[in-house]
Design brief:
Trna Endonuclease, Chain: A, domain 1, five-stranded mixed sheet
Length: 132
């Protein structure tokens, strides 16, 4: 059965809104089923199982190049690339400003224009849309 996003998550003001709405719907399904309290890897695995049901193509643990003044400094792994959206997930009691800054830095380094930061660890799923 294919899942569908709640239309309230679609906002034409946001780039890739249809895709991010589907990702959010898949994340909500995972959070409703597992609830908070698990390590991040469990949410990664569950989300990887849920995303195809929403018709989303993805890659998990994608390496991105980090450059400084055109020179490669190294590589960093992001949790997911789902179609044209980078996704970082957390499993914390709450998101902190450092998590937002980190996700924005990964988004900039990756070259993707749109990202999501989703925290599964809180009682209520926390979602931040990011734009580069």
């Amino acid at each position: 059965m294919t899942g569908t996003a709640d239309r309230s998550f679609v906002d034409p003001a946001y780039p890739s809104s249809e895709t991010t709405a589907q990702i959010i719907a898949a994340a909500l399904a995972v959070h409703r089923t597992l609830g908070p309290g698990f390590e991040e890897v469990f949410y990664q695995r569950a989300l990887a199982m849920e995303l195809p049901g929403f018709g989303l193509e993805f890659a998990r643990e994608v390496w991105i190049d980090v450059r400084y003044k055109g020179r490669l400094l190294g590589r960093k792994r992001v949790d997911f690339v789902i179609e044209d959206v980078m996704l970082e997930i957390k499993a914390r009691g709450q998101l902190e400003p450092v998590h937002h800054v980190q996700a924005l830095s990964y988004l900039k380094a990756s070259g993707y224009k749109v990202g999501l930061l989703i925290n599964f660890g809180a009682a209520r799923l926390e979602i931040k849309r990011l734009a580069n």
